[in-house]
Write a structure and sequence with these properties.
Distance between the termini: 36 Å
Largest sheet: 5 strands, mixed
Strand order of the largest sheet: 4-6-7-9-8
Oligomer: single chain
Number of strands: 9
Helix content: 55-70%
Structural class: alpha+beta
Shape: elongated
Radius of gyration: 42 Å
Strand content: 5-15%
Length: 364
Amino acid sequence: MRRKITGLSGTLLIYSFVITSLLIIAFILYIKYIPVPQLSLPGYLANLKNSYVISSIEKGSETIPLSTINGFISKDQIEKMYLSAMLRDLPYLLILIIFIFITGAIILSIILQRQQEKQALLLARQLSHIDDNSGIAPGHPAIAKAYSEIKNRLAANALDYVRLSSYVTHEQKNILSLLRAKLQLSGNSELMDDVDKVVDSLDDILTLSASVNSSDMEIIDAALVCADVCDEYKKIYPDIHFDFDDTANYQIAARELWINRAVSNLVSNAIKYGKGRIEVSVSNQKGSIIISVSDEGNGLDDEELEKLFDYRYRVGKLKKDGYGIGLSLVRHVCDLCRGLCWAENKKTGGMVFYMVFPEALTID
């Protein structure tokens, strides 16, 4: 099977062909335009005798008689005349050859540098997507092998991390459940609230440690999850309103824990920083499930809106801890479920946060 000539080999082949062609053309022009040496003959016989001398040399005559001159001119003398004429113009040929090589080397270095930058950018792009299956493996066998080994190693490390965090978190949740039951029997509601906060934090850790894996997905009803979250937060903040169409389909491919923690973080932020009426709604628009959480607090600048979902970003003008890890978890959940999220300022004041997921029936 023939390999296609590309990249560095193709560039060097073209460079060699061009340089060789230019050198051949230079030599042909040099030989073609060498001036005919002039013999020291009388002016009225110069043209005739020079033509006769040249034709005699081409016929191989050893000596060339010139009746107008005493004696003979040998063939060696004529060849020496041609050699001197060639040597006289040889420096120009050397200068031309040096110019061709220097120019070619500069052009070749520029082309190779651009190809190197292109390959570096391609490799960087492939490495940035090494944790998913959308990246294309490098073409060179050695690089492809190293790329595959690094990818497998990272996947194994990520799997070990997920397993460890899941195991530790579940064990901690079991202990906290027992502790909460004992506190409930003793009637210590304040400590129960603290335990619930720790459990929520552990659920956030489980969600953040999750990776994109179709085997982890299940079909859930987003409206039911949002309703559960609203019912839970109404106990501490009664001004929460939930709106949805009970005839629509709200099934998405996700995990109930992920959606629960994402919506809970949005509602929690709305309670802390939004104030006023909080509205949670779920709708199905053209095969997309849209979850929105709006509040009546202060809006944010456009620059802050762009950074809002970055990991541990803190809004400067907020006196409290800021939106922090909660919104980065929301973005992580959307990435896991092939969705997207963003925030907008409302014209009437306050903010609205959106999460959009593909309907489960439309997923490949």
